[in-house]
Amino acid sequence: MGKCGHTRYAVTMPNAPKTPARHMRIPDEEWNDLGTAAAGQGTDRAAVVRELIAWYLRRPGAKLPTRPERAAD
Fold first, then answer.
1. Are 67 and 52 contacting, i.e. CB atoms less than 8 angstroms apart?
2. What pLDDT, on the 0 to 100 scale, is given for residue 8?
């Protein structure tokens, strides 16, 4: 079990994730569109963001995630 890092909740937590949560400010419309686009490709927002970060940092073997098709206007 993982430990919660927040001082108010410094207790052992069941099912603690292996990576810490990160906080970012992203407009609702972009966040929602990212979720829709990622789901349409069988993935989720977190996976897309991790792929982008790995590519940006030039990690070995990292590639840009596949972009969704542009919606017809």
1. no
2. 56
Dihedral angle of Cα 28, 37, 59, 25, to the nearest 10 degrees: 0
Render each residue's pLDDT in the chain as its tens digit; 73 residues. 455 555 555 556 677 778 888 899 999 999 999 999 999 999 999 999 999 999 999 999 999 999 988 876 6
Please enumerate in sequence order all residues whose Cβ is within 8 A of that of 47, keeping only pairs 6 or more positions apart, or say none. 38, 65
Cβ atoms of 22 and 37 closer than 8 Å:
no
Bridge partners of residue 2, in order along the sequence: 13
Whole-number pLDDT of residue 70: 80
User: How far is residue 19's CA from residue 21's CA, in Å, rounded to a whole number?
Assistant: 7
Q: What does the radius of gyration of the chain's CA atoms come to, in whole angstroms?
A: 16
Beta strands in the chain (DSSP E): 2-3, 12-13
